Amino acid sequence: MLKAWFAIALWKRVLGALALGLVFALVWPQGTPYVQFMGDLFVRAIRMLVAPIVLVTIAAGITALADPKRLGGLGGRTIGLFALTTAVAVSVGMLVAALVQPGIGAPLGTATAHALGDPVTPYQQLIGIIPLNIFEALAKGDMLALIFVAILVGVGTVVAGEPGKPFAALLQSTSAVLLKVVGIVMEATPFGVFALIANAVAANGAAVFVNVGWLALAVVLGSLIQIVVVHSLILRLLAKLPLLPFFRGIVDALVVAFSTASSSATLPVAMRVAEKNLGIARPVFSTVLPLGASIGKDGTAMYVGLLSMFALQAFGTPLTPQVYGVVLLTGALAAFGTAPVPSASLFMLAAVLSAVGVPPEQTALVVGFVLPFDRLLDMTRTVPSASANLTVATTVARWEGELDEEVYRASDYA
């Protein structure tokens, strides 16, 4: 039975658990308290992992950039462009959420409206980024402080040079171990989702699913805006290239990105279309695209910004300019540090929500609410990430004089 269970794809098990949770709540709503412990355990497992994942994966991601081939002029331009597209993607996600408002009225189980409490001045927010005690910040889950420490540790490791290589290897190894732990916890997702959905439906009825449709619509709109508007503007204004040859040439890569929901799995196809269809020289695409698979996360950034606003709308958190600023900053940093594993952005969501005062318990409710549907959303948001990688590669190649415009503008592709 165990073999048959694990032979089923996780997302299918999660959808089955969601359906069972719905039926359970509709048939026997009085029984939902008896299964609540599974949801509580799932919530605690998520809370346990968030802080170390944020600290280690961001630091490990920075040390991965220490490869001399990735640094220098080409690397600097590449990282700068990815930073720009990532920040804009978070803004796009927030804008779409403000327009569609998918979180308004979203019944997230027993979650209640959460105010920010006593107002915190920008000065206090700025000072609080630097913790007095790293371990205290880790224990409290102070995400802004942890992100700062992670960046500092990563940069310090790179600057240390040769003596820092053993520690960089330790960070990479620890990151790999944590991702395996995430995989183990994710195997328990069907049971957690069953309990969370059962309690949510018992408390609010089947209307709990209405807002998922609005959220999915917002993800599609955000992805389209990022590709059609943002990437097009970069190609036209910065690279000064026509758009039709680009989008016609990257279709294969976008299809693979959607079907696999993985930037890493898309990499071989992206390299082929970069050379054959776009005319990008090998030294450029062989450097930019692998780097983009690690940090080029436009789709994740857009989704983190969108989902953060969805959660804040659902919990009734006052949306002040300060909140928007913190979501933008932490969302961009969290997207850079997101591991290339399915649904990893849901774990990074906690870093953003924690920074604006949402407690881990409510963040876990959002994760449990969205996770059953996250596979399709993940497939959708991987497409703008793949498009961003090829947009940046094309623009950098144009700047470096490494773009064969005859190949780029050709109507027939090899």
For the record, the count of structural domains works out to 1
Oligomer: single chain
Helix count? Answer: 20
Q: Which architecture would the CATH scheme give at its second level?
A: Orthogonal Bundle
Stretches where pLDDT is under 50 for at least 5 consecutive residues are 109-120
Could you walk me through the main structural features you see in this protein, from its secondary elements to its overall organization?
- The protein has 414 residues and is mostly helical.
- The protein has a single domain, classed as Proton glutamate symport protein (Orthogonal Bundle).
- 76% of the residues lie in helices and 0% in strands.
- The chain has 20 helices and no strands.
- The chain has helices at 2-7, 10-27, 32-63, 73-100, 122-128, 134-140, 143-159, 165-186, 189-204, 210-238, 244-249, 251-260, 263-276, 282-295, 298-315, 321-336, 344-355, 360-370, 374-399, 405-409.
- The longest helix has 32 residues, at 32-63.
- The radius of gyration is 22 Å and the shape is globular.
